[in-house]
Amino acid sequence: MQVRVLGCSGAIAKECRTTSFLVDSDLLVDAGTGLGDLTLDEMSLIDDVVLTHSHMDHVAHLPLMLDAVAGRRSTPLRVHALPETIEALRAHIFNNVIWPDFTRIPSEAEPFMRFHPFAQGQRLALGAQIPKVVEVLPAVHTVPACGFAIRRAEGGLHWVFSGDTERNEAFWRRVNAMDVGALVIETAFSDRERLLAERSLHLSPATLASELTRISPHHNYPIYITHTKPAETEEIMSQIDMLATNHEFVFEPGGVPEPDIRWLQRDEILTV
Question: Locate the Metallo-beta-lactamase domain: which residues (predicted)?
């Protein structure tokens, strides 16, 4: 399974795109500004979109993608999200004021898009082209939110994405029961902005260190840092490097190797 990083920044700037991942060629995870770098043909191949939550940096280009390729599709785009996320999109974006309601265009019987609600803990069978299983994981954020664990339907390792979250014990309980090939986890703010991170329910390097100690001692997989604010990315990664040097990520003495922590970059392709 291939995961293409379309966007992994916590805000926009030159060469920075907000959160969006293309899994194989037919599944989109979040619809931030990175989605706009796909060609029309690439966007047309997407059958399913799964959304972590309703914040603009994760949904901004969904209406624009629909406008670009809806007429090229023979079936509605399927958008899967928590009920609260769907309600927010209906009320604030697809409301015929900010953007047309594509669930009713060209008709309610044959729209360009259909919403499909899911619940935390649910497993979704998605992908007519390349079947995949998507499990909805818990997240702790300022709005109802989730993360995802995704693998090919025939089996294999999971690609795990935390979504936007602060400390999240339930997430680790579930992830520690999985065969994980790679973890993408947010760290939006530096420790200098730790109070802001806590208030907005994001991670900073210090809380990331605390979270990563929850990984089972028997697990060892690459950990990719995402959602860094462009103005703080170098500071965040420097602080993470310092914490790793001081062994702040170790689960228990001698219990797990030093974690393989990397900065996620746009246009990177992860193979799981």
Answer: 17-219
The token pair at 76 is: 């509605």
Q: Shortest CA distance to 226 belongs to which of 188, 181, 272? A: 188
What domains are there in the chain, each with its CATH number?
2-264 (3.60.15.10)
Structural contact between residues 8 and 34, judged by C-beta atoms closer than 8 angstroms? yes
Beta strands in the chain (DSSP E): 2-7, 20-23, 27-29, 48-50, 77-81, 113-117, 123-126, 132-138, 146-152, 158-161, 180-186, 223-226, 261-263, 269-271
- pLDDT, tens only, 150-205: 999 999 999 999 999 999 999 999 999 999 999 999 999 999 999 999 999 999 99
Antiparallel, parallel or unpaired: β 180-186 and 223-226:
parallel
**Residue 272 and residue 1 in contact, taking contact as beta carbons nearer than 8 Å:** yes
- Quote the CA–CA distance of 14 and 219 in Å, as a whole number: 36
Asked if residue 184 lies in contact with residue 161, where contact means CB atoms within 8 angstroms, the answer is yes
Task: Enter the DSSP assignment of 259.
Answer: P
- How far apart CA 62 and CA 102 sit, in angstroms, is 11
Do 272 and 3 contact (CB within 8 A), yes or no? Answer: yes
CB 9 within 8 A of CB 266: yes
Q: Record the pTM.
A: 0.95
Return the residue matching tokens 């898009």: 113
Kindly report whether the peptide bond that precedes residue 144 is cis, defined as omega within 30 degrees of 0: no
Kindly state the tokens that stand for 201: 């329910």
Burial (Cβ within 10 Å: 0-12, 13-18, ≥19) of residue 208? buried
Q: How many residues does the chain have?
A: 272
